[in-house]
Structures are given as structure tokens and as C-alpha cells.
């Protein structure tokens, strides 16, 4: 079997993601499970499985179960992670409907760079941990601030946020003995 190091196409990444989910659900995947999940023909699945096996990302033999190799599991987890980060960003940060977010994430997961993905993850983490990050989008004001158009309250909110972050940073330094 030859080892191919060329990057995966978007289509093959979709197969890796499908195998990952089916294998996680059923402990092993069959070509039919993959075809059903991706809504493609058996012939398409067979061709993709052969290519993925050549790249040593899956264990595959015709009419047998399909499993991810350890290398394949890393690749699949990466694709799944990109998808989940994008979907969560669209839903949690942008307030996009779940179905629309899912469809957009599926299309975009193949093209987003790791650097952008890391920054999105950091941003979501920041908002999850920041006292101000818990505010929600207000359609009436077109902002995330709970105080809307009252700048005085917003300024106080921001000052409280900074003070809280400084307190947390000082506590972390004490814990580390710095």
C-alpha cells in the first residue's frame, strides 16, 4: 500500500468526519452506514474508502467494517473540531439558527485556517469567561450590551469587567506563586 501525504479534498474530509461519527456511534462503520450518512452512492463510498486506505487513514477491505487508524483518528478529530468550533461560533456568538449554522459550518470547515480557528476558539472562550460575555444580542439596540443605548451604564459595566479581570489575574498569579 503506498503512503500518500497530499492534503485531503473537502469530499474526503467529509468521509473522514462521517466515519468518525458512525464509528463513535456503532464502534465500526460499514460502507452502507457511510453512504446513508452522506447521502451518496455505494460506488462513491467505495472509491473514497480506497483513497483513504491508501493514505493509511482507515482500515478497509471490501465488504468488511471500516475503522480509523490512529493517524486517521487525528485527522478526523481535526475536521470534527473545525466543524464544531464554526457551528458554535455561528450559534453562540452570531445568534444564527442551528440548522443554518450546521450547514454553513459544513461548507466552511474545509477552508478555514488553523490560525483563524484558534482565534475564534479564543474569542468564544473569552466571551464564555468574561463577565460581560454573558450578555446576549439585543435586537432592539443592535448590541451585545445589556444596557443598550445608555453609555453611562455601559461604561460602568466595562469598568466592572476590567476590575474583575484584574482580580482574577492577581488570584491566578498568587496560585502560581508569582
Give the helix/strand layout:
Elements: H1 10-26, H2 31-38, H3 42-54, E1 58-59, E2 67-68, H4 70-93, H5 98-108, H6 114-129, H7 151-176
Antiparallel strand pairs: 1-2
Helix pairs in contact: 1-2, 1-3, 1-4, 2-3, 4-5, 4-6
Overview of the structural elements:
This protein is mainly α. The protein folds into two domains: 1-114, Winged helix-like DNA-binding domain superfamily/Winged helix DNA-binding domain (Arc Repressor Mutant, subunit A), CATH 1.10.10.10; 126-178, no CATH class. The chain is built from seven helices and two strands, in the order H-H-H-E-E-H-H-H-H. Helix 1 packs across helix 2.
Strand coverage percent: under 5%
What global shape is seen? elongated
Give the name of the CATH architecture of the largest domain: Orthogonal Bundle
**Quick check: average pLDDT?**
83
Structurally, the number of domains stands at: 2
Number of helical stretches of at least 4 residues: 7
- Strand ordering within the main sheet: 1-2
Please estimate the helix content: 55-70%
Structural class comes to: mainly alpha
* Strand and helix order: HHHEEHHHH
**The CATH superfamily title of the largest domain:** Winged helix-like DNA-binding domain superfamily/Winged helix DNA-binding domain
Question: How many E-type strands?
Answer: 2
Uncertain residue ranges = none
Q: If you consult CATH, what is the topology of the largest domain?
A: Arc Repressor Mutant, subunit A
Largest sheet: 2 strands, antiparallel
Radius of gyration: 22 Å
Query: End-to-end span in angstroms?
Result: 54 Å
CATH C-level category of the largest domain: Mainly Alpha
Amino acid at each position: 500500500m503506498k503512503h500518500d501525504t497530499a492534503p485531503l479534498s473537502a469530499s474526503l474530509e467529509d468521509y473522514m468526519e462521517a466515519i468518525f461519527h458512525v464509528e463513535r456511534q456503532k464502534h465500526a462503520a460499514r460502507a452502507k452506514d457511510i453512504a446513508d450518512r452522506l447521502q451518496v452512492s455505494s460506488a462513491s463510498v467505495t472509491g473514497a474508502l480506497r483513497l483513504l486506505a491508501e493514505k493509511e487513514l482507515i482500515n478497509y477491505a471490501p465488504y468488511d467494517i471500516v475503522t480509523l487508524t490512529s493517524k486517521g483518528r487525528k485527522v478526523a478529530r481535526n475536521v470534527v473540531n473545525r466543524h464544531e468550533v464554526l457551528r458554535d461560533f455561528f450559534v453562540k456568538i452570531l445568534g444564527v439558527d442551528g440548522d443554518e449554522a450546521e450547514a454553513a459550518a459544513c461548507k466552511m470547515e474545509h477552508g478555514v485556517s488553523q490560525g483563524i480557528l484558534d482565534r475564534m476558539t479564543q474569542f468564544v472562550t473569552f466571551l464564555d469567561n468574561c463577565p460581560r460575555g454573558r450578555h446576549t444580542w439585543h435586537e432592539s439596540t443592535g448590541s451585545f450590551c445589556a444596557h443598550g443605548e445608555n453609555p453611562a451604564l455601559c461604561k460602568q459595566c466595562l469598568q466592572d469587567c476590567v476590575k474583575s479581570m484584574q482580580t482574577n489575574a492577581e488570584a491566578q498569579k498568587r496560585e502560581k506563586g508569582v
